[in-house]
Design goal:
Elements (H helix, E strand, L loop, with lengths): L1 E10 L6 H19 L2 E6 L6 E10 L2 H18 L4 E9 L1
Antiparallel strand pairs: 1-3, 1-4, 2-3
Length: about 90
């Protein structure tokens, strides 16, 4: 069994409150979960209006396919909407 954690550092230009930040993140996380069948949650920068750290976690028996899935998910988030910019991302195999 292979577990892959992918952390994404996001910038939310124009977000003026935590409520607006969460309004943007909630549908994004929901769609990532549905589309890629991974766990997704906000895990950092909770009190910063224009920043967010989210984590995607997947489980598989094949690490290569899991890396490919996560890379596809990250690129999908990059294209998802003009309201969210991916500043950086990293993966960690467990």
């Amino acid at each position: 069994m292979v577990v892959l954690l992918c952390r994404l550092d996001l910038y939310l230009p124009g977000a003026r409150s935590l409520k607006e930040k969460r309004r943007r993140l909630k549908p994004l996380l929901h769609r990532v979960r549905q589309r890629f069948r991974v766990a997704a949650a906000e895990v950092g920068a909770h009190e910063r209006w224009q920043r967010a750290e989210i984590a995607l976690v997947g489980v598989s028996t094949d690490d290569r396919s899991l890396y490919a899935l996560m890379e596809e998910a990250v690129h999908w988030v990059e294209r998802y909407a003009a309201e969210v910019d991916v500043v950086g991302w990293q993966t960690e195999l467990r």
